[in-house]
Amino acid sequence: MTLGLVLIAAVLVGPRLSRVTVRMAARDDAAVPSALRTGVTSALLAGLLAGAVGLTGLRPATLALAWAAGAAVVLGAVDLAMHRLPDRITFPAYAVCAAALLADAALLGTWAALVRAVLAAAAAFALAAGAAAISPQGLGFGDVKLLGLLGLVLGWFGWGILLAGVFLGLLTGAIASLLLLATRRAGWRTAVPFGPPLLAGAVLALTLGTVSLG
């Protein structure tokens, strides 16, 4: 039953996310995604939604993970295409995730997790903003806002999950950069989008954290 709902949601929402992605990347409201992109987007969303339900079951916090999953699909693709993390995706994700986690706390008493999530979001945002101020070419403000969002979501699960997510994101980014250098698809001065590695690190942290706790 749950798997069926996940597949239905992915089939219904995936094509819309694909359209949003190509239109933001092309800055053309008439752009149409290819069938391949729509299929890949829907499949990726299905996997992330299944993971969200597997982590939390069906509860208000699941909506936070599900919305963050959809936002991650769009943000990652747009960042890869044009090195930009649109506020039109990031800011609503903050609002929906915070509201869902607040509802979870009100209904299920997870106040400690909510407070930790808010503190983690503030800490991640502040530290990232400091790093961006020191090295603006290394970390853009879009990445700073993304880290705040990841702090909110990962922090709800625990400080260890958040730290693991940031570490794995940095590691993924470093490995990707080395591969691009080795294949001569990028040089030492080439700007590499940082959003996708951060998002991949978050997914890995949640997956590995759940496995270790299980």
From TrEMBL:
Limits of the Prepilin type IV endopeptidase peptidase domain: 71-175
UniProt cross-references to Pfam families, sorted A to Z: Peptidase_A24
EC code: 3.4.23.43
Transmembrane segments: 34-55, 62-83, 89-107, 114-136, 156-182, 194-213
InterPro entries referenced in this protein's UniProt entry, alphabetically: Peptidase_A24A_bac, Prepilin_IV_endopep_pep, Prepilin_peptidase/N-MTase
Keywords: Hydrolase, Membrane, Transmembrane, Transmembrane helix
One Gene Ontology term of the molecular function aspect: aspartic-type endopeptidase activity
Keyword Nucleus: no
Signal peptide feature range: none
Similarity section: Belongs to the peptidase A24 family.
PANTHER family noted in UniProt: PREPILIN LEADER PEPTIDASE_N-METHYLTRANSFERASE-RELATED (PTHR30487:SF0), TYPE 4 PREPILIN-LIKE PROTEINS LEADER PEPTIDE-PROCESSING ENZYME (PTHR30487)
Protein name per its UniProtKB record: Prepilin peptidase
Source organism of this protein record: Blastococcus deserti
